[in-house]
Amino acid sequence: MKDVKVLGPGCKRCQTTEDMVKSEAARLGVPVVVEKITDYAAIAGYGIVSTPGIVIDGKVVHAGGLPKSEDLAKWLAA
Amino acid sequence: MTETPRGGPRPLIWVVGTILFVVAWFLAYGQLVPVSEWVVGQLPLAPGSGAYEAIKFFIYDTPKVLMLLTLVVFAMGMIRSFFSPERTRALLAGRAEGLGNVAAASLGIFTPFCSCSAVPLFVGFVSAGVPLGVTFSFLIAAPMINEVALGLLLALLGWKVALTYLGFGLAVAILSGWVIGRLHLEHWLQDWVRNVRASAIDLPPENLTIVDRIQAGIEAVKDIVGRVWIWIIVGIAAGAFIHGYVPADLLASIMGKDTWWSVPAAVLIGIPMYSNAAGIIPVVEALLGKGAALGTVLAFMMSVIALSFPEMIILRKVLNLKLIAVFVGVVATGILSVGFLFNLLFT
User: Fold this and answer.
1) Strand A32-37 to strand A2-7: parallel, antiparallel, or no bridges (unpaired)?
2) Are A50 and B200 in contact (CB < 8 Å)?
3) Number of folded domains in chain A?
4) Averaged pLDDT of chain B
5) For labelling, which of B8, B12, B33, B293 has a CA lying 20 to 30 Å from the CA of A31?
6) What is this structure's pTM?
7) Which residue of B has its CA nearest to A49?
């Protein structure tokens, strides 16, 4: 079970990112728990400055803008 | 390594494709004037009438503005792929004021971030040890020197005005940030902001290829031009109406360079307005054609895009009201000075 956190105050891109994570995980058959982090202090705590950001199993893998689906697949498969 | 490089296996095709696109762009751009002249010539309207002037303005401007904007946004998107906000923050952390303000304002032009990132960005910068004034230089430059505004000014008013806007926008961001830094207002941040300790980021290095950067340019065009084109057309239509029907002496008396109060009035009207540069600049062009002063209209434009209420409501989460008031006051003063200076310089 992978623990995925999508970081962002809740703009449209953050929502899209969350949807992308879920559909990519479903496509790959990787079980995930997706959690949204909207608290600014928590976001800054991860060292992320630009949102949306993605944290997988405690590790920051992406910051700023929408992720590419090929990258998502790589992170989820790792 | 058997892994294909990111962005596909054929960088050459992308590079050649981009070059061909740019060449085609220039060829098409060169044909805009004769083509639009021909179209206007087919109109069943008497040259010189209000309707003729308005429609001519619209037919000339719409393709020109959209084409130049596309090129500027594409170039900007490619340049921006070199400046992630995380990298910018690392560059600015621990910088002294002065030079730090200059660096922050310059990076503000290129570093991409969407408006919903303003707060995480602010918190991230401050908690990483970027001085408050330097952070403000960045936050002011980022919206003020806007690629859409730059592209439109280039398209409609020429490179001299575009370059001057760039220069003065930078100056306002540098000086405003420096002043805010000198005032030592760190205790006016919201409490929780001062307590955040950002962990050092451990993002893997990006290693973007040329294909990634070209794709970033294309993404920027899809995103930005896709979002603003409708406002541009509405703006050009409004500009066309002004061009064809609003009497010149009326405008010159309200927004002309001899009317000293028009600059502060333009800033006051501009602050509560929330619009993007896209719809405003075509109107600016038409106003200028009718005798409005350049400094006045630029002051208006800058206050609309750099000092918007939604932005301040977002910033309210990290700054207290006094600090927001100082921020607005300092930036408005900067814009006022730019307005008066432009009116003096461009006669």
Assistant:
1) parallel
2) no
3) 1
4) 82
5) B8
6) 0.79
7) B121
